[in-house]
Design a protein that fits this description.
Blueprint (H helix, E strand, L loop, with lengths): L3 H26 L3 H22 L7 H18 L21 E2 L2 E2 L1 H13 L21 H20 L6 E6 L5 H14 L4 E5 H13 L2 H13 L2 E7 L9 H11 L4 E6 L3 H7 L2 H8 L4 E6 L4 H5 L1
Parallel strand pairs: 3-6, 3-7, 4-5, 5-6
Antiparallel strand pairs: 1-2
Length: 308
C-alpha cells in the first residue's frame, strides 16, 4: 500500500516529466534561429505591455503587434513539426497540474493513487458498469424483478443527490442477492463523477484495523487515513470478518462515528438485532437511526446458485 509521501513522489515525478518533455521540445525548436527570434520578440512585447499597463500608459499598437507575432509564432511551430501544446507541460491531472494539492487540500488524483493502491490489494469490484441504465434486469427472476428495479432506483437517486445525502446507507439481504454488485455499480458511478471511493469487504477492513492497531505511531496515519477521508466508503459483507478483541468493535464504532461528515455504504446478511448482538448497541442504534441511515432491504433469490 502506498504511503502519502510515496503518492506525493509519484505526482511530483509526473509533473517533472511533463515539464521536462515540454522543455526538451522547446529547446529543439530553439535550434531554429527564426523561431528563437520570434520567441524573444514575443517575450519583449509581453513585458512592454505589462509595464505600460502597470503605469496606465498608452499601449499604442502593442497588443495588435503581439497578436500578429503570436499567430506567426504558432505557424512556425507547426512548420517545424510540432504543435503549440508540445511546448506546454501535458499534466496527468488537469485539476492540480500534478501538484497533488488544490488550495492546501489533497487533489482527487493524489487520493485516488492511495485508494487504488489499497484497492489493488483488496480484489476487484464485481462489475465495470458505471451507469444505472446499463444494468440488465433480465437476470432477475420475474418474482423479484420489480423489487430489484425499485432498489436500483433508490440507489440511482442516492447517486444523483450525492453528496447531499445522509451519512450511511445500509443494504440488508440474504447471501447472493446482488448487494455487492449493486455497490460496485454505485462505486463506479461515484468514481466517474470524480469522487474518491474505497470498496472493502469487512475482512479487508478488519485486517486494516489490525494493521493500524499493531503499527508504530508514525505509520498509523498513512494506514487509516484513506478509510476515514474518502468521499464514499463501501463496507461489503459486514459480519463475515473475525472479531479481534480490542480491535474490530472499537475501531468499527470509531469509524462510523468519525464518518458522519462523509458517506458510507454497508452491506450485510445480518439483521439489526444480529448486528447489535455481534458488535455493539451503539453501532446498531446508529444504523437504525432514520436521521443517519437509509435502510434498504434487498429481497431476492440467490443469484450465484441461479447462475450455476
Amino acid at each position: 500500500m502506498l504511503t502519502l509521501s510515496q503518492a506525493i513522489d509519484i505526482v511530483n515525478n509526473r509533473r517533472n516529466l511533463a515539464e521536462l518533455k515540454a522543455l526538451q521540445n522547446l529547446e529543439k525548436l530553439r535550434e531554429d534561429k527564426i523561431f528563437s527570434q520570434m520567441e524573444i520578440e514575443l517575450r519583449q512585447l509581453s513585458f512592454e505591455i505589462a509595464k505600460r499597463e502597470a503605469l496606465n500608459a498608452d499601449l499604442g499598437d502593442l497588443k495588435e503587434r503581439f497578436t500578429d507575432c503570436e499567430i506567426q509564432f504558432k505557424k512556425k511551430i507547426q512548420e517545424l513539426g510540432y504543435t503549440p501544446k508540445d511546448i506546454k507541460p501535458r499534466y496527468f491531472c488537469k485539476r492540480c497540474g500534478d501538484k497533488g494539492f488544490i488550495d492546501g487540500k489533497r487533489c482527487v488524483c493524489l487520493e485516488n493513487l492511495i485508494l487504488n493502491s489499497i484497492k489493488s490489494n483488496c480484489g476487484k469490484l464485481e462489475t465495470d458498469i458505471d451507469d444505472f441504465n446499463k444494468v440488465d434486469f433480465d437476470i432477475f427472476g420475474d418474482a423479484y424483478k420489480k423489487g430489484y428495479k425499485n432498489t436500483y432506483k433508490q440507489l440511482h437517486k442516492y447517486a444523483e443527490k450525492f453528496p447531499d445525502v445522509i451519512p450511511y446507507l445500509l443494504l440488508m439481504g440474504s447471501t447472493g442477492t446482488g448487494k455487492s454488485f449493486m455497490c460496485s455499480v454505485v462505486s463506479n458511478v461515484m468514481m466517474k463523477k470524480g469522487y474518491t471511493v474505497l470498496f472493502l469487504n469487512s475482512c479487508e477492513l478488519n485486517e486494516l484495523f489490525l494493521k493500524y492497531h499493531l503499527a508504530d505511531i508514525a505509520l498509523k496515519g498513512d494506514i487509516i487515513y484513506p478509510v476515514y477521508q474518502c468521499d464514499l466508503l463501501v463496507i461489503d459483507d459486514l459480519g463475515m470478518e473475525n472479531i479481534y478483541k480490542n480491535v474490530t468493535v472499537p475501531y468499527l464504532y470509531s469509524l462510523i462515528i468519525n464518518r458522519r461528515q462523509k458517506h458510507t455504504i454497508i452491506t450485510t446478511n445480518l439483521s439489526h438485532s444480529q448486528i447489535a448482538e455481534r458488535y455493539d448497541f451503539r453501532i446498531s442504534s446508529r444504523l437504525m437511526d432514520k436521521n443517519l441511515t437509509i435502510n434498504v432491504p434487498v429481497l431476492g433469490e440467490d443469484l450465484r446458485l441461479k447462475k450455476r
